[in-house]
Write a structure and sequence with these properties.
This protein is mainly α. It is 61% helix and 0% strand. It is built from four helices and no strands. The protein has helices spanning 12-20, 24-37, 41-51, 56-66.
Length: 74
């Protein structure tokens, strides 16, 4: 079977498979983000989906915005 090659020269079938299944990196990043910032797992997953699992400083910044420290001002 011939590979289906995109304009970038890679077999695009493998790329689709990679995108469909969550990676261990993503799960580890979500878990670490929850533990270090206190956001919910759903919030952490959404941030990782938007920013990617390798943008740690951006993930921390956004998670801290979602979960501010200290008592809420009225």
């Amino acid at each position: 079977m011939r590979p289906i090659v995109g304009s970038h020269g890679r077999d695009i079938r493998n790329m689709v498979d990679e995108q469909e299944k969550p990676t261990a990196v993503t799960s580890d990043t979500v878990r670490r983000l929850v533990n270090e910032t206190g956001v919910t797992t759903a919030q952490a997953r959404e941030l990782v989906a938007f920013l990617g699992p390798h943008s740690w400083t951006s993930l921390l910044r956004e998670a801290r915005i979602l979960k501010p420290k200290g008592p809420k001002a009225v």
